[in-house]
Amino acid sequence: MDSLPDLAAVEAMDEADPLRAFRSRFALPAGVIYLDGNSLGAASHEVFAEVRQAAMEEWGNGLIRSWNSAGWFHLPLELGDRVGRLIGAAEGQTVVTDSTSINIYKTLLAALAMRPGRNVIVAEGDSFPTDIYMAEGVLSTRPGITLRLEGRDAGTIEELIDDSVAVVLVNHVNYKSGELRDMAALTKRIQAAGALVIWDLCHSAGALPVDLDGADADFAVGCTYKYLNGGPGAPAFIYAAKRHHASIVQPLSGWWSHARPFAFEQSFDGDAGIKRFLCGTQPILSLRALKGALSIWDEVDMEALRRKSIALTDLFIRLVETKCGQYGVELETTRDSEKRGSQVSFIHSNAYEVMQALIERGVIGDFRAPSTLRFGFTPLYVSYHDVWRAVTVLEEILSSGSWKDARFAVRAAVT
Amino acid sequence: MDSLPDLAAVEAMDEADPLRAFRSRFALPAGVIYLDGNSLGAASHEVFAEVRQAAMEEWGNGLIRSWNSAGWFHLPLELGDRVGRLIGAAEGQTVVTDSTSINIYKTLLAALAMRPGRNVIVAEGDSFPTDIYMAEGVLSTRPGITLRLEGRDAGTIEELIDDSVAVVLVNHVNYKSGELRDMAALTKRIQAAGALVIWDLCHSAGALPVDLDGADADFAVGCTYKYLNGGPGAPAFIYAAKRHHASIVQPLSGWWSHARPFAFEQSFDGDAGIKRFLCGTQPILSLRALKGALSIWDEVDMEALRRKSIALTDLFIRLVETKCGQYGVELETTRDSEKRGSQVSFIHSNAYEVMQALIERGVIGDFRAPSTLRFGFTPLYVSYHDVWRAVTVLEEILSSGSWKDARFAVRAAVT
User: Fold this and answer.
1) For chain B, does the N or the C end have fewer beta carbons within 10 angstroms?
2) Residues where N6-(pyridoxal phosphate)lysine occurs (chains A, B) (predicted)?
3) In A, residues 211-240, which contact B (CB 8 Å cutoff)?
4) B95 has which bridge partners?
């Protein structure tokens, strides 16, 4: 292994970074090293301009006319295709709409309807919980369907799959550990058993190259407010492979999913394409913020992004282990860069207090119960120098024990 | 009946209008008379300030910290209570979340679960179609449940109710005709038959005083982008009477509806209150636009609003019938002001072309197939002089036949 980089070497990495120009597009506050773009991505100047245009010009002056003239009604499909480019989806297979939770519900029910006679949903016990909760919601209205959870029931995802399984809902990157699944291999394994797969891309869309079409995936869902930088609570997306479009039936059949929404017909007739996964009217200002964010993504080379992501996370792991290893931090994420997303988690027995101390010093990551320090590395606006500086601050906090101050133990109502 | 007001009399009505100061709060474009606030309400300066604050300060500078420090996570309940004041709901019974369509689905399933053994949903054939589509969506996953529609099946809503009916989904104000139902009487009738009622308030919230608690209503849903001026596609609301909270079960059980959302538990345990109707993460920028809009509503006397609404619509009807009656316009809305919302519809055999000609002249209403000219009167920013001027323009268009120009017959892709 190469010798540990010093500050000069780290600065040279920034000099050579082909993505470094993107940082100026973001409105980052002074004095902050932001390692939480995997929870809420940073705002960009493009976003502010889009929101101003949508609110003041289009809504303020255009009023109702802007549904036509500003293309508001077409945003779910337009933005869907732009997200599609980042997740390996050819046109017409992705829409931006509703929340990830709701989109999980739609895709689970669509998948169950396509596999009559099979009565099992498989998911992950260590998933972000809303995936499990939505599966339980499906169970509550579908007597006879059962849920198998990796990590609760015996066996891995692969071992839980048999010929009673209709659909597997699985995360591409785990929200806590950062573990990256092999999409192509697992999709193949699931489909070989006759089941369908729904990939949850919340922690991989915009974090690394995703190739849904290439993996022959069935469905995917994900959010746009993490690596895609669409803004707090920005609407989520759904992908469905074109081969399934004619078979999609889902019960959230609002007027935006009708084949002729403006004919105001008395009976439902679903759109023949991906719009079948829409439901009701969408929040335009939030969609327009996302449009601004995606205008940056249109310029990004995803392979270069992945190379920088791996370099950032590798550097962080090496520096933390070398400089802070003696203070009780232990790597939770895999050391194998091929098997992790764009985040790194460390375990520490007082992770909550340590994270509060970091945030007070301007290094923003997050805490996940019971003892995870989670750091996200967003290659568009995080520099190698940020990594260096973050580890320096972490080392100071751990070596001085300053995290033991009582004020860091006070928990906010919402974390 | 009084003699028909002349221009001087109309201007005197504006002088005496206790709500006239509100108009300056809105960012209305010059040269436009906006009679479509029942489709998309106008933008206000308060909204622009809120959106700027939320985007540039809270997201841009606060980043992830603003979920706590700016109270983002509490917006559904905070804004719900502020909408609640306008619809007669005491605190803790209303949340702002998702779309009206999705909220219909949640409340229908919650109501069905509360009436086991009853298997009929009653709704209206002439409802805005998404209400019917969502009921059909419920049917698609609930074999054995059937749908009765007033206007398709024989009988009025009242006649369709019997002891097999679990829930009645009914509009307070019809989106097309403007017909206003008697909420207290119909609620009583429905409950006497052992059923539950869901009021769709899309065209009455912010249009007139609504008294859900006073009517002893069970559930209500509605949108916030019409009379409430929350912005295009702003999130919708749900009301549930407190007495039902312990019984609410609905399958869109995302993490925001969990009793302890930040404990990240592996199994769902629903919130004991109105938050049980939340689901996933909400679009914060759109919610903050609504917050700005509601800051104006906090100052509005709903009784004064209703008086002006009736005066505006009465004046419009009288002027149109007197000045334009000879050109084939026929009143669709009831003449009885007690039985209509804040909108007036006229039938004309070439309604589409007439509306396009009006819009070109800066009088914005809307067209509803096949032959309705629909005009909304939003008392916060429509003046009596606007009414006068709109009718003058309509008279000019009809008397000259200028609407017959071929360009007015070209239909936009989305109307």
Assistant:
1) N
2) 226
3) 223, 225, 231-236
4) B238
User: Is the domain B7-30+301-409 a CATH 3.90.1150.10 member?
Assistant: yes
B285 to chain A, any CB pair closer than 8 A? The answer is yes
Report which residue type is found at B267. S
User: Given an 8 Å threshold on Cβ–Cβ distance, is A132 in contact with B67?
Assistant: no
- DSSP string of A295-348? HHHTT--HHHHHHHHHHHHHHHHHHHHHHHGGGT-EE-S-S-GGGB-SEEEEE-
Report whether CATH 3.40.640.10 matches the domain B49-297. yes
**Alpha-carbon gap, residue B60 to A41, rounded angstroms:** 10
How many Å apart are CA A87 and CA A68, to the nearest integer?
A: 29
A100 is in an annotated binding site: yes
Per-residue pLDDT tens over the stretch B116-158: 999 999 999 999 999 999 999 999 989 899 999 999 999 999 9
All structural domains of chain A with their residue ranges = 7-30+301-409, 49-297
Work out the angle between the directed axes of helices B284-297 and A284-297 (0-180°, nearest 10): 150
- Confirm or reject contact between A284 and chain B (CB < 8 A): yes
- What does the alpha-carbon distance between residue A340 and residue A44 come to, in Å, rounded to a whole number? 26
Q: What count of CB pairs under 8 Å joins A to B?
A: 284
Which tokens is B135 given? 């009921």
In the residue annotation, A381 being an active-site residue is answered as no
Cis peptide leading into B379, omega within 30 of 0? no
pLDDT tens for residues B7-54? Answer: 999 999 999 999 999 999 999 999 999 999 999 999 999 999 999 999
Average pLDDT over residues B235-256: 97
A133 is catalytic: no
Whether B227 is catalytic: no
Paired tokens of B335:
């003449």
**Is B255 labelled a binding residue?**
yes
A323 is catalytic: no
Distance, CA of B190 to CA of B195 (rounded, Å): 6
B40 touches chain A (CB under 8 A): yes
Q: Does A78 touch chain B (CB under 8 A)?
A: no
The confidence score (pLDDT) of residue B410 equals 87
Q: What is the ipTM, given to two decimal places? A: 0.97
Q: Classify each residue of A227-262 as buried b or exposed e, where b means 16 or more C-beta atoms within 10 Å of its C-beta.
A: bbbbbbbbbbbbbbbeebbeebbbbbbbbbbbeebe
